[in-house]
Amino acid sequence: MAGSWNVNAAQICFTNGVVERLSNVMEEDSVMDYPISNTTRVFPPLIFDVGNKGDHLMEQITKRVEQLEKNTQQIQTDVAVLTARSEHFATKADIEKVRAEQGVMRVEIMGELGALEQRIDKKFERMEDKFDKKFEKIDEKFERVDQRFNQLEDKIAAFNNSITWKIMLPTGLLVLAWFMQNIVLKMS
């Protein structure tokens, strides 16, 4: 028979080749990359029974749907975790608020430091004044001590002069007179 098909061979060739190509085309994302032509594709009519091949496709689709459900559940879990975490994320407004608070705090700290510096400066000035007064008092005491030493030196000098004139000079004169007397007497 010219042009007649062997039923078993046609089933195997057509169903295996076309169905696999169709399922491969459905799985590939790159099919959308090709331009769609305006011509209608003509496939030979399915005259022959394809048997259990439809069940195989359904099993594949069922497995893919199950995998999609698992993936969807994992995605939902991940989204829930990210949503819970995102409640604690800082927004731009939060960051700007913190920056503004830091600026205010910095100004307050700088003001407090300036006031503290002024208080410390005043305390140092008061301490300096107290030390100056105490040093002045100590200087005055040293001057009084110097004056007393000078007075004591003057008294000692006066006493020395008085001893010299009152005791030493007459004693010296007596010794000289005695010496002269002994020499003159012996010489004579």
How does this structure look, described?
- This protein is mostly helical.
- The protein contains three helices and no strands.
- The longest helix has 96 residues.
- The protein is rod-shaped.
- The termini are far apart.
Query: How can the largest sheet be summarized?
Result: none
User: What is the approximate shape?
Assistant: rod-shaped
Query: Unreliable runs, pLDDT <50, ≥5 residues?
Result: 1-16, 28-37
Order of helix and strand elements from N to C terminus: HHH
Report mean pLDDT, rounded to a whole number: 77
Q: Helix content range of the residues, please?
A: over 70%
Secondary structure category: mainly alpha
Portion of residues in beta strands equals under 5%
Helical run tally = 3
How widely separated are the two ends?
202 Å
Radius of gyration: 63 Å
Total number of strands: 0
